[in-house]
Design a protein that fits this description.
This protein is an all-beta fold. It is built from no helices and 18 strands. The chain folds into two domains: 1-92, no CATH class; 95-147, no CATH class. Bound molecules: zinc ion (ZN).
């Protein structure tokens, strides 16, 4: 167990890579930091960041997708926790899940007993809805396939 010497941070690490400005940075899709508990993190210019793959992984199988330090994933859950529910997030915002319901524009739906209207389809999973004056993101899982 040792302190990170390269970046002079106070995290305990096995290895870390830094770029010229002294921030953690991943090269060739390798983790920028491997912590002494074997948590691995991919970074770009000091921020947790990896495109289309998890940017943070834990030995127990937990995985998080991040872009610029924000939980974000278009085509699947941004957080996968073994033994508990996945989180779906876009740009750091966590979505409600709507199971097995086909969503289309202007459809009126109920989320936890609250009435909402579908206002925009973002992609095959993601929709924007309106609750009162507030826009929220939801995920319809009926079209989402694992893998
Ligand atoms: Zn470091």
């Amino acid at each position: 167990m040792k302190l990170c010497i390269k970046c002079r941070s106070k995290h305990y690490i096995i290895s870390c890579t830094v770029y010229e400005k002294g921030e953690h940075h991943s090269y060739n899709d390798k983790p920028a930091i491997i912590y002494d508990d074997f948590v691995k993190m991919w970074c770009s210019n000091g921020k947790a960041h990896r495109e289309n793959k998890p940017a943070k992984t834990w030995p127990d199988g937990t995985r998080e997708w991040l872009l610029n330090n924000e939980l974000h994933r278009n085509d699947g859950p941004a957080c996968q926790y073994p033994g508990s529910a996945d989180w779906w997030c876009l740009k750091g915002e966590r979505a409600e899940l709507i199971l097995k319901e086909n969503l289309y524009l202007k459809k009126v739906i109920q989320i936890k007993g609250i009435t909402a209207i579908v206002i925009e389809k973002i992609n095959d999973c993601w929709y924007e809805i309106l609750i009162g004056d507030e826009k929220k993101l939801v995920v319809s899982l009926d079209k989402y396939k694992e893998g």
